[in-house]
Write a structure and sequence with these properties.
The chain is an all-beta fold. The chain has a single domain, classed as Rieske Iron-sulfur Protein (3-layer Sandwich). About 0% of the residues lie in helices and about 45% in strands. The chain has strands spanning about 10-15, 25-30, 30-40, 45-50, 50, 55, 65, 70-75, 80-85, 100-105, 110-114. Strands 1-11-10 form a 3-stranded antiparallel sheet, with no helix packed on it. A hairpin with a 4-residue loop joins strand 3 and strand 4. It is globular, with a radius of gyration of 14 Å. The two termini are about 15 Å apart.
Length: about 110
Protein backbone atom coordinates (compact mmCIF):
# COMPACT_ATOMS: atom_id res chain seq x y z
CA UNK A 1 0.00 0.00 0.00
CA UNK A 2 1.39 3.38 -0.99
CA UNK A 3 1.77 6.13 1.55
CA UNK A 4 -0.88 8.84 1.28
CA UNK A 5 1.50 11.44 2.67
CA UNK A 6 3.20 13.38 -0.09
CA UNK A 7 6.91 13.93 0.38
CA UNK A 8 8.31 17.39 -0.22
CA UNK A 9 11.96 17.27 -1.23
CA UNK A 10 14.37 19.97 -0.09
CA UNK A 11 17.76 20.43 -1.74
CA UNK A 12 20.64 20.21 0.75
CA UNK A 13 23.86 20.21 -1.27
CA UNK A 14 25.60 18.75 -4.29
CA UNK A 15 26.57 15.09 -3.98
CA UNK A 16 30.12 15.91 -5.10
CA UNK A 17 30.50 18.17 -2.04
CA UNK A 18 30.14 15.23 0.37
CA UNK A 19 33.14 13.09 1.25
CA UNK A 20 32.21 9.42 1.38
CA UNK A 21 31.66 8.09 4.91
CA UNK A 22 31.93 11.60 6.42
CA UNK A 23 28.82 13.24 7.84
CA UNK A 24 27.42 16.67 7.10
CA UNK A 25 24.77 18.57 9.02
CA UNK A 26 21.73 20.26 7.47
CA UNK A 27 19.51 22.71 9.35
CA UNK A 28 15.80 22.21 8.66
CA UNK A 29 13.80 24.71 10.67
CA UNK A 30 14.52 23.88 14.31
CA UNK A 31 15.93 20.42 13.46
CA UNK A 32 19.46 19.43 12.60
CA UNK A 33 19.83 16.39 10.33
CA UNK A 34 23.04 14.37 9.92
CA UNK A 35 23.55 13.05 6.40
CA UNK A 36 25.98 10.27 5.48
CA UNK A 37 26.75 9.25 1.88
CA UNK A 38 28.49 5.91 1.46
CA UNK A 39 29.41 6.38 -2.19
CA UNK A 40 31.00 2.96 -2.77
CA UNK A 41 27.79 1.29 -1.61
CA UNK A 42 25.56 3.95 -3.23
CA UNK A 43 23.76 4.42 0.10
CA UNK A 44 22.64 7.70 1.66
CA UNK A 45 21.36 7.96 5.22
CA UNK A 46 19.79 10.85 7.12
CA UNK A 47 19.16 10.78 10.89
CA UNK A 48 18.70 13.28 13.68
CA UNK A 49 21.96 15.06 14.43
CA UNK A 50 20.99 15.24 18.11
CA UNK A 51 22.56 12.52 20.27
CA UNK A 52 20.00 11.86 23.03
CA UNK A 53 22.59 10.14 25.24
CA UNK A 54 25.20 12.90 25.01
CA UNK A 55 22.49 15.58 24.75
CA UNK A 56 24.21 17.49 21.94
CA UNK A 57 23.98 17.98 18.17
CA UNK A 58 27.11 16.01 17.22
CA UNK A 59 26.24 12.85 15.26
CA UNK A 60 27.31 14.31 11.90
CA UNK A 61 30.84 14.34 13.39
CA UNK A 62 30.69 10.64 14.30
CA UNK A 63 32.65 7.80 12.75
CA UNK A 64 30.79 5.62 10.23
CA UNK A 65 31.47 1.91 10.19
CA UNK A 66 30.11 -1.61 10.25
CA UNK A 67 29.33 -3.27 13.57
CA UNK A 68 28.15 -6.88 13.39
CA UNK A 69 26.83 -6.34 9.86
CA UNK A 70 24.99 -3.10 10.67
CA UNK A 71 25.99 0.25 9.16
CA UNK A 72 26.37 2.58 12.14
CA UNK A 73 27.66 5.94 13.25
CA UNK A 74 29.51 6.13 16.57
CA UNK A 75 28.70 9.21 18.60
CA UNK A 76 31.82 11.32 19.18
CA UNK A 77 30.76 11.88 22.80
CA UNK A 78 30.10 8.58 24.58
CA UNK A 79 30.64 6.28 21.57
CA UNK A 80 27.12 4.80 21.36
CA UNK A 81 26.46 3.27 17.96
CA UNK A 82 23.34 4.25 16.03
CA UNK A 83 22.11 2.13 13.12
CA UNK A 84 21.96 4.48 10.13
CA UNK A 85 19.05 2.62 8.52
CA UNK A 86 16.81 2.39 11.59
CA UNK A 87 18.13 5.01 14.03
CA UNK A 88 18.22 2.48 16.88
CA UNK A 89 21.05 2.71 19.41
CA UNK A 90 22.84 -0.64 19.57
CA UNK A 91 23.85 -0.25 23.22
CA UNK A 92 20.46 1.11 24.39
CA UNK A 93 17.66 -0.27 22.22
CA UNK A 94 15.10 1.94 23.98
CA UNK A 95 16.87 4.97 22.45
CA UNK A 96 16.37 5.73 18.78
CA UNK A 97 16.68 8.58 16.32
CA UNK A 98 14.35 9.76 13.60
CA UNK A 99 15.39 8.67 10.09
CA UNK A 100 14.59 10.92 7.13
CA UNK A 101 14.00 10.07 3.47
CA UNK A 102 17.05 11.15 1.49
CA UNK A 103 18.09 10.76 -2.12
CA UNK A 104 20.63 11.72 -4.75
CA UNK A 105 18.67 13.24 -7.62
CA UNK A 106 20.95 13.95 -10.56
CA UNK A 107 23.86 14.87 -8.30
CA UNK A 108 21.83 16.88 -5.79
CA UNK A 109 21.23 15.54 -2.28
CA UNK A 110 17.62 16.06 -1.19
CA UNK A 111 15.86 15.45 2.13
CA UNK A 112 12.25 14.35 2.16
CA UNK A 113 9.83 16.12 4.44
CA UNK A 114 6.16 15.21 4.86
Amino acid sequence: MESLVETNWTEVCNAEDIISHVGICAQLGEKQVAIFYLKDEQQIYAIDNYDPVGEANVLSRGIVGDLNGEVVVASPLYKQHYNLATGVCLEKSEVSLHCYPVRDRDGVIELGLP
